[in-house]
């Protein structure tokens, strides 16, 4: 593994942990943008400049859209795990990914991509399963999509440019869905997310409406 | 290049329809116009030299043209039925957004990109359909769709990474995969296909979607997008796993078992449902078994048959959804126990459902029948084939049950429903009505006298121009009241049109059979187009 691959994959894992583990929605959207910007660099050989640029623009756009959704997230909408636990999960996933390279599957991509992909999957699974709000869910789903591309890179080598572009479109679509729907869901249903966990709690739905706008 | 105009028109149309959705009349007109323009653009998609984009290719094909045209035509008719029943502002945008994604996904070479864009289409269509107004049930349904699409695409990406499809034009021999890896990949893709179609035990998605989504957007969400997932996955599976199919006996057996369970239990569930929307939802669940059998076959012939059958599936299910909208609007309820004897009050809806039944079941020699039987025979044999064949007729049985309920004694709700007979407004404008009456006033009552325009001079009375003006004015004045009075027969008429479109698809019109068998455009170094 080259230093660039190690640095980029570590940045991906860190970004995924921050995106799904931090309480501050703004930091979470920043972590998500970092994850998406760094992910295309976990490839050997590196993608062509145009797909890299497309991926960067898509990452920034997705981060911005998630940031819009984050502004509508109420105070106190905590992630399923704390930041420390999420960082630990990312580290464990990274180690597991390195270990998984021992499996004798024919692979055309770098080990770092598999490690980064496992790290992202490790931190994204819990929010997807037990999320409380659409912002957290969208962040985790975007991270999971990035993880899929990373594992694909590890298995089949650097993705075709058209695959990178399609990945960017999918990520932006997910972020846009969170940005557009998240606010409406808050305003109409008095619950910020799909699971209505808040509604079942004694704190009631009132706090769900009073988020920052 | 012929695909690009469609994509441009559909994207712009989806944006316009979504931006104007809060304006009742203008939004409706803009949405309908956008769908019609997109339909015209989709009809002009041709099989041609693909356009190189980012190392891949984007190109049209006959099969893609038929997919898009049927999706938009049937979706438009459902929008009309839905608009005649209620106002569903988000449905046109969802239809166009989903169709755009389907066009991109099936027009691109390479399975990973196609999977990603199919997921993007699912996300966009779901967000547009369920995002506004965002009721809690809709937000939950949206969350389920987002979760399902994303996890499906990730599983698909991993599978396509382990087992990339082989290019027939490369001249290389069949690539035998590591058996364990191939087995995992087949099971993973089977899981994805089962989830997207709603196969048992993953069937709750379809039923809940039919409860939450606006009925006008249901065809794209519950029929056409799963069909697009099926086209992508089945196109990949035959090429990637076909050479290894001999070593996948156990895994194929598992998928066949799941398919048989889905066919039989889905049919059973459709037969015990009381709401017509749930009946349709569980017929979709039941037919997921046929899609799973097409996957288990791992055979190019079954893939080609599936590409034809998926069109019949999506069109007939769209027609059934349109029929349920008309049915619920006609009787104010979709509960079968409350609508016994509905055939006597709504015989035109009965005709529409009977046409849909013929399209769903078919007969030997018909594309719908032959394609379905080819899929079943490719994946099963002996008693399993018999079970699969019986289960594949489940949708027809469910429709027969609805018809049988309609033949019963009319309930109070049915007896009080509005008849399907066309009606005219109270003041009927005829050429004679424009003539002055004996007292110098037009006939037709006080309202007509108040609204009547000054009569032409006696010397010009008989001129064709004045008569035409009179007719035009009368038509303009009476169009809206006539529309309001005749919503029931109009809905029934559009439902019959939907049934006719389904029947045309089932008989193999539009060159479906040849388009399903034709290879897509291939670049020397690229994989074939997954969509054909």
- As residue ranges, the low-confidence spans of chain B are 167-174, 436-459, 521-532
Proportion of beta-strand residues of chain B:
under 5%
Q: What is the strand tally of chain A?
A: 0
The main sheet of chain B comes to:
2 strands, antiparallel
Structural class of chain B: mainly alpha
Task: Please tell me about this protein's structure.
The complex is a heterodimer of chains A (213) and B (532). Chain A is built from eight helices and no strands. Chain A has 213 residues and is mostly helical. In chain A, α1 runs antiparallel to α2 and α1 runs antiparallel to α4. In chain A, 60% of the residues are buried. The C terminus of chain A is likely disordered. The two termini of chain B are 16 Å apart. Chain B is an all-alpha fold and 532 residues long. In chain B, strands 1-2 form a two-stranded antiparallel ribbon. In chain B, α3 packs parallel to α12, α4 runs parallel beside α9 and α12 packs antiparallel against α21. The interface between A and B is large, with 48 and 44 residues.
């Amino acid at each position: 593994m080259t230093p660039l691959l190690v640095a980029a994959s570590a940045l991906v894992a860190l970004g995924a942990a921050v995106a799904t583990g931090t309480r501050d929605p703004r930091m979470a959207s920043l972590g998500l943008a970092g994850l998406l910007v760094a992910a295309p660099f976990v490839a050997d050989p590196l993608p062509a400049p145009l797909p890299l640029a497309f991926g960067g623009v898509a990452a920034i756009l997705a981060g911005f859209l998630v940031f819009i959704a984050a502004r509508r997230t109420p105070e106190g909408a905590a992630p399923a795990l704390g930041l420390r636990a999420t960082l630990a999960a990312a580290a464990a996933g990274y180690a597991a990914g390195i270990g998984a390279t021992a499996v004798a599957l024919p692979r055309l991509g770098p080990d770092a991509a598999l490690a980064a992909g496992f790290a992202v999957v490790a931190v994204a699974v819990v929010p997807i399963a037990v999320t409380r709000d659409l912002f957290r869910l969208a962040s985790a789903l975007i991270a999971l999509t990035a993880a899929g591309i990373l594992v694909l890179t590890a298995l089949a080598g650097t993705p075709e440019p058209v695959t990178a572009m399609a990945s960017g479109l999918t990520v932006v679509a997910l972020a846009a869905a969170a940005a557009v729907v998240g606010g409406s869901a808050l305003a109409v249903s008095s619950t910020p997310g799909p699971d209505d966990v808040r509604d079942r709690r004694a704190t009631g739905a009132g706090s769900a409406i009073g988020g920052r706008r | 290049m012929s695909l690009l105009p469609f994509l441009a028109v559909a994207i712009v149309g989806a944006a316009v329809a979504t931006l104007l959705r809060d304006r009742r009349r203008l939004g409706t007109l803009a949405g309908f116009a956008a769908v019609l323009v997109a339909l015209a653009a989709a009809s002009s998609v041709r099989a041609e030299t693909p356009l190189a984009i980012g190392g891949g290719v984007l190109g049209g094909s006959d099969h893609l043209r038929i997919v898009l045209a049927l999706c938009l035509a049937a979706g438009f008719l459902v929008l009309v039925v839905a608009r005649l029943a209620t106002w569903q502002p988000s449905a046109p945008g969802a239809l166009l957004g989903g169709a755009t994604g389907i066009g991109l996904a099936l027009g691109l070479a390479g399975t990973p990109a196609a999977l990603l864009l199919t997921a993007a289409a699912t996300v966009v269509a779901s967000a547009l359909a369920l995002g506004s107004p965002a009721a809690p049930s809709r937000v939950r349904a949206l969350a389920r769709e987002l979760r399902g699409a994303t996890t499906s695409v990730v599983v698909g990406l991993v599978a396509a990474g382990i087992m990339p499809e082989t290019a027939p034009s490369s001249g290389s021999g069949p690539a035998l995969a590591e058996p364990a890896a191939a087995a995992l990949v087949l099971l993973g893709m089977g899981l994805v296909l089962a989830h997207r179609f709603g196969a048992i035990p993953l069937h709750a998605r379809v039923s809940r979607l039919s409860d939450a989504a606006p009925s006008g957007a249901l065809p794209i969400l519950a029929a056409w997008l799963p069909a697009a997932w099926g086209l992508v996955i089945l196109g990949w599976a035959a090429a990637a796993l076909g050479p290894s199919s001999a070593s996948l006996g156990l895994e194929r057996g598992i998928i066949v078992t799941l398919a048989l369970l889905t066919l039989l239990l889905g049919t059973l569930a459709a037969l015990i449902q009381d709401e017509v929307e749930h009946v349709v939802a569980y017929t979709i669940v039941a037919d997921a078994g046929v899609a799973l059998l097409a996957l288990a076959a791992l055979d190019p012939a079954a893939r080609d048959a599936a590409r034809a059958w998926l069109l019949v599936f999506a069109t007939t299910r769209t027609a059934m959804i349109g029929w349920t909208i008309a049915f619920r609007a006609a009787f104010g309820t979709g509960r079968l126990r409350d609508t016994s004897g509905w055939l006597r009050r709504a015989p035109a809806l009965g005709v529409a459902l009977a046409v849909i039944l013929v399209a769903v079941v078919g007969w030997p020699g018909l594309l719908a029948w032959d394609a379905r039987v080819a899929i079943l025979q490719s994946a099963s044999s002996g008693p399993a084939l018999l079970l699969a064949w019986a289960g594949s007729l489940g949708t027809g049985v469910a429709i027969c049950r609805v018809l049988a309920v309609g033949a019963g004694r009319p309930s109070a709700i049915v007896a009080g429903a509005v008849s399907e007979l066309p009606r005219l407004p109270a003041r009927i404008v005829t050429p004679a009505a424009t003539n002055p009456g004996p007292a110098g006033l037009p006939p037709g009552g006080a309202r007509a006298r108040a609204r009547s325009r000054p009569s032409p001079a006696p010397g010009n009375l008989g001129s064709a121009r004045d008569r035409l003006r009179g007719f035009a004015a009368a038509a303009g004045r009476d169009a809206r009241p006539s529309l309001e009075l005749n919503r029931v027969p109009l809905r029934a008429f559009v439902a019959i049109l939907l049934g006719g479109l389904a029947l045309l698809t089932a008989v193999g019109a539009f060159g479906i059979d040849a388009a399903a068998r034709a290879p897509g455009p291939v670049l020397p170094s690229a994989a074939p187009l997954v969509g054909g």
